[in-house]
Amino acid sequence: MKKLEAFIKEGVSAYNCTQYAAKDLEKHGFEELHYADEWHLKAGGRYYMKHYGASLFAFTIGKKKGRLRMAGAHTDAPCLSIKPNADFVTKGYAQVNVEVYGGPILNTWFDRPLGVAGRVILKSKDVYHPKSVVYRSKKPLLILPNLAIHMNRDVNKGVEIKNQTDLMLIAGLLGEEGQDTAYFMDCIANDLKVNREEILDFELTTFIWEEAMYVGVSGEMYSAPRLDNQTSVAALVEAIEEADCIEGMNFIGLYDHEEIGSRSKQGAATHFTYELLQRILEQTGYTTEEVRRYMYEMILLSVDVAHGLHPNNIGKMDITTQPILGNGFCIKQACSQSYATDAEAIGIFAGLCEREGIRYQRFVNRSDVRGGGTIGAILSSLLPVKTVDLGVPLLAMHSARELMGSSDQQEITKAVTCFFND
């Protein structure tokens, strides 16, 4: 859980998550690569590469040719994203204009102190190479207060939230004489120790300032923001750091933009993953024929969270498959291929878990519920390879704070590590 605790604390945006993952990998002997540079890969080497700041790939090369093992997760999470020209004033309140990123449970974001994180683009001497800075506010900068029940008597019956009016954040109180319309941007500039005019653009999102914590009589549950999908990111990073790659290659991809469909240059839907794998294999001595053969025989783990059985809403779960928090991670399956798992892939991975004594459960959606999707179906259609969708079961998925059984993190980390060791 220590690795997950660190990623929850540090990975407050996709950019911050990638930055922290890179630092952690370097501590474990991984060398940074840049795609535009010439590479000199070595047997036994450990490497990572950041991709447009919010995605990351890491791989270890065995000392002889052999099998390929790949696992993927995503770095982003549902949140409120800050728009350009963010500052505006309403009757002395400094406010910030936002839009919804992904599919958050919006009412859980009210009345919580919010930090700001992401990246800021600054002017430089070369207009084609502006300076990019990963940013995290030093304190909570924003808040979204509820309307009092006295003015909204039906609030507990469920009231529609209008994104353009109800979600505008408060950044401060300006007073009678203060009508500066760059209140928020001045704060960002001051934190970065630059003039406001040096900021060309930004990709900033809000994050829940409250810390994660263990809850329950025995502390067996873990309540935290961004469990979707920092549980998976932490498991993959720890697994590739700890596993011994004797032959072939172990490879992880941490992708941005899963929560909005993955169709971007740093999302899982890009053809970049195939090209990267091909380049690595060719650099390490594989012939064109071997590249094709080994990639076709590769097994992919798509690691993303699953839904656990909610004790107050049992009817929302499938009638025969009902995973419980604390009973192990879930192997996810759907005939629609929203989860890319097939029977052969399940057989391989379930056999591995049973051999190693790793606890796992099954998850399927109710037959009348569409459910969500993962990067698994996207990646397996681009590569294409046998794929297993799996993840830690949660309650309150896409809430500002989600809930998991703390022991499940150990199980999924062990499973991915064993997969990389095999």
Question: How would you portray this structure in words?
Answer:
This protein is an alpha/beta fold. Helix content is 26%, strand content 29%. The protein has 10 helices and 20 strands. The strands form 4 sheets. It has a 9-stranded mixed β-sheet, with helices on both faces. A 5-stranded mixed β-sheet has the order 11-12-20-19-15, with helices on one face. A hairpin with a 5-residue loop joins strand 11 (213-215) and strand 12. It is globular and about 70 Å long. The two termini are 23 Å apart. 43% of the residues are buried.
User: What integer is the average pLDDT?
Assistant: 94
Global Rg: 22 Å
Query: DSSP helix count?
Result: 10
Strand content: 25-35%
Q: Would you report the number of β strands?
A: 20
Distance between the termini: 23 Å
Structural class: alpha/beta
List unreliable stretches of 5+ residues.
none
Amount of helix: 25-40%
Widest beta sheet: strand line-up: 1-2-3-13-4-14-18-16-17
Give the SSE order as H and E letters.
Answer: HHEEEEEEEEHEHEEEHEHHEEEHEHEEEH
Index terms:
20 strands, 5-stranded mixed β-sheet, globular, 10 helices, alpha/beta, 9-stranded mixed β-sheet, 422 residues
Produce the secondary structure layout.
Layout lengths: L1 H9 L3 H14 L3 E2 L13 E6 L3 E7 L2 E11 L4 E12 L2 E9 L12 E9 L8 E6 L26 H4 L2 E5 L9 H10 L6 E10 L4 E3 L5 E4 L2 H16 L4 E9 L16 H12 L4 H9 L2 E5 L2 E2 L21 E4 L10 H14 L3 E4 L11 H8 L3 E6 L1 E3 L6 E4 L1 H15 L1
Parallel strand pairs: 1-2, 4-13, 4-14, 14-18, 15-19, 16-17
Antiparallel strand pairs: 2-3, 3-13, 5-6, 6-9, 7-8, 7-10, 11-12, 12-20, 16-18, 19-20
